[in-house]
């Protein structure tokens, strides 16, 4: 037997007993004739002591130890002279009788402490050492708890966990596929699933009316923001449901997770907002509703007064930033520059200061009377002391820019408290999105999302204006300005699915080639169904109060999609290439 207890277990009541622990040497301190060794395992840290009374063998062994050696230590539990209230085991220590070195260690390339001295790249290369650190251990523990509670909840609701294949054919989530060449089928490729979307729908056709899976998804996207090429979803689908059933059930799941994993109570019921409201009021389909500063349209108030910039646009919108009227010229200039960054893309910024002393000052004083400026500020909901910021241009684009500005001001004013959880369902998404560049419609969610039954007439029309008005019973779960999940009620009729492909400009040959299997399945008694998927890594990070998902994934990739520990991706040898009937035309690596 390697150990009788773990390093996080012993307390005062164990004093006097002889125990054996096993673990890693965290730290060694010599004080006078005494040597203290902190021994660490997954469960905690326990202090070991060798002193003048210890046997020579113990003294020798302890003298040979270095950081991260794996040892087995036997000794008697004793009450500490100076207790450490910060450690669970801080009341006791082990007076060593015997020390066995199970395996020595090279000096680790960085310190295995809560705050390490190692840079990101170095820690990624030695991920297994980084994972020994407590913050990462806590992150993975939270992830485990979360998965466990997801299963508890969904199992109790009658869901079955069913695995779906990874080697499949292209799926339609709108990203690029990762592909895998088939040796047995020369010149042919599998695609890795961007999600199990089509499979879960086929499971509904098969009659498994409540399905879920905690499943890996693969999307070959540029990894700017905090994304990973492979990530995990809580993927779910249900039959004989309407949107209301799906929202209620998963609201329950989120409430269960908040309660059991972080002991937090969230709004009940979770508020809902239509996509149109979200765009008009927050300039985003994932509004952060922890703070106000809503967007207000002021177009009619500012047009027709000789300011040509406003007169020539479709839309002028404003936000009122609380308490920011005191901004100096330098600060407003900086903001005006800030909105011109490519991430925002505004051409310029107009402001109105509602000074504390009741006076009004604006960058467009020349064109407007004080009363006119006050009317604009009132429309934006500004009070004394607020700074009103205005942007203009095409409606949706400008709202989106105001949304970005709103979040930035929220950050600057400290209004986005990570300890506050403000969930929201965004509903009634448009079914389709027009793309000017390619001059065609794209599915806003994915091509299996059903048009609202009351919008079928528009859906069957060939006029762009009609198609643009079609809404879907599609919904996103948003938390603190982050989309955590989304789904929809699906198409379950072969003819509507065919029409959807037609609307998307996919020829019937292409539709048959890519998705014939599902159109076909819909001919054999497909039940009405719908579902959704949550981003599991992201939920874990948010619950853990972190921005980045990387810490919640045991072996993540860097932002070039590389695993720097494995050094993958990498070239494969010529024989393998030949077997797969592949030839590389990649440029030589420098
Ligand atoms: N497959 C969708 C996604 O990955 C989720 C869903 O519609 O259920 O976003």
Distance between the termini: 53 Å
Principal-axis shape equals globular
Describe the biggest sheet? 8 strands, mixed
Main sheet strand line-up: 6-9-10-22-21-20-17-11
Secondary structural class = alpha+beta
Low-pLDDT ranges: none
CATH superfamily of the largest domain: Bira Bifunctional Protein, Domain 2
Number of strands: 22
Write down the CATH class of the largest domain. Answer: Alpha Beta
User: What's the average pLDDT?
Assistant: 96
- Number of separate helices: 18
**CATH fold category name of the largest domain:** BirA Bifunctional Protein, domain 2
Total domain count: 4
Using only CA atoms, what is the Rg?
A: 30 Å
Description:
- With 590 residues, the chain is an alpha+beta fold.
- It folds into 4 domains: 12-103, OB fold (Dihydrolipoamide Acetyltransferase, E2P) (Beta Barrel), CATH 2.40.50; 135-268 and 535-576, Bira Bifunctional Protein, Domain 2 (BirA Bifunctional Protein, domain 2); 291-412, GAD-like domain (Gyrase A, domain 2, 2-Layer Sandwich); 423-524, no CATH class.
- The protein contains 18 helices and 22 strands.
- The model has no long low-confidence stretch (mean pLDDT 96).
- The protein binds aspartic acid.
Output the keywords.
single chain; Gyrase A, domain 2; 24% strand; five-stranded mixed β-barrel; BirA Bifunctional Protein, domain 2; 4 domains; 18 helices; OB fold (Dihydrolipoamide Acetyltransferase, E2P); 22 strands; 590 residues; eight-stranded mixed sheet; binds aspartic acid; alpha+beta
């Amino acid at each position: 037997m390697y150990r009788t207890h773990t390093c996080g277990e012993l307390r005062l009541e164990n004093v006097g007993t002889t125990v054996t622990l096993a673990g890693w040497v965290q730290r060694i301190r010599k004080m006078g004739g005494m040597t203290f060794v902190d021994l660490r395992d997954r469960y905690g840290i326990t202090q070991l002591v060798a002193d003048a009374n210890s046997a020579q063998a113990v003294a020798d062994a302890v003298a040979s130890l270095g950081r991260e050696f794996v040892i087995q230590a036997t000794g008697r539990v004793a009450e500490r002279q100076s207790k450490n209230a910060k450690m669970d085991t801080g009341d006791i220590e082990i007076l060593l009788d015997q020390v066995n070195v199970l395996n020595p260690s090279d000096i680790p390339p960085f310190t295995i402490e809560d705050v390490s001295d190692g840079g990101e790249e170095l820690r990624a290369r030695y991920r297994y050492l980084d994972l020994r650190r407590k913050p990462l251990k806590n992150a993975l523990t939270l992830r485990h708890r979360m998965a466990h509670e997801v299963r508890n909840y969904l199992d109790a609701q009658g869901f079955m966990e069913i695995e779906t294949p990874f080697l499949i054919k292209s799926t339609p989530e709108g990203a690029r596929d990762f592909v895998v060449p088939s040796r047995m089928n020369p010149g042919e490729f599998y695609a890795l699933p961007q999600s199990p979307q089509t499979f879960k729908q086929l499971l509904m056709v098969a009659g498994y009316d409540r399905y879920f899976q905690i499943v890996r998804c693969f999307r070959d996207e540029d990894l700017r923001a905090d994304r990973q090429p492979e990530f995990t979803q809580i993927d779910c689908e249900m039959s004989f449901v309407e949107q209301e059933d799906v929202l209620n059930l998963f609201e329950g799941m989120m409430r269960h997770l908040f309660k059991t994993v972080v002991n937090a109570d969230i709004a009940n019921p979770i508020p809902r907002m239509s996509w149109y409201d979200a765009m008009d009021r927050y300039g985003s389909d994932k509004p952060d509703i922890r703070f106000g500063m809503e967007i207000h349209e002021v177009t009619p108030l500012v047009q027709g007064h000789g300011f040509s910039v406003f007169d020539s646009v479709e839309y002028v919108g404003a936000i009122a930033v609380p308490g920011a009227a005191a901004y100096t010229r330098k600060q407003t200039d900086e903001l005006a520059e800030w909105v011109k960054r490519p991430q925002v893309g505004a051409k310029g910024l107009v402001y109105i200061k509602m000074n504390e002393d009741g006076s009004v000052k604006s960058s467009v004083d020349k064109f407007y009377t004080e009363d006119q400026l006050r009317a604009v500020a009132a429309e934006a909901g500004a009070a004394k002391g607020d700074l009103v910021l205005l942007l203009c241009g095409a409606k949706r684009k400008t709202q989106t820019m105001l949304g970005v500005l709103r979040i930035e001001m929220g950050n600057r004013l400290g209004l986005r408290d990570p300890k506050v959880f403000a969930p929201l369902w965004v509903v009634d998404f448009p079914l389709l999105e027009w793309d000017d560049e390619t001059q065609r419609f794209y599915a806003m969610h994915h091509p299996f999302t059903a048009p609202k039954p009351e919008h079928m007439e528009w859906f069957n029309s060939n006029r762009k204006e009609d198609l643009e008005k079609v809404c879907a019973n599609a919904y996103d779960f948003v938390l603190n300005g982050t989309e955590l999940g989304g789904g929809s009620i699906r198409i379950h009729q072969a003819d509507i699915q065919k029409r959807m492909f037609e609307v998307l400009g996919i020829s019937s040959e292409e539709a048959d080639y890519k998705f014939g299997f599902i159109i076909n399945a819909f001919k054999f008694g497909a039940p009405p169904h719908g579902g959704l998927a949550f981003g599991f890594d992201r939920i874990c990070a948010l619950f853990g109060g972190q921005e980045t998902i990387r810490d919640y994934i045991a072996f993540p990739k860097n932002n070039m999609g590389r695993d720097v520990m494995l050094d993958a991706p990498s070239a494969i040898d010529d024989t393998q290439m030949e077997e797969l009937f592949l030839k590389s035309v990649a440029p030589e690596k420098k």
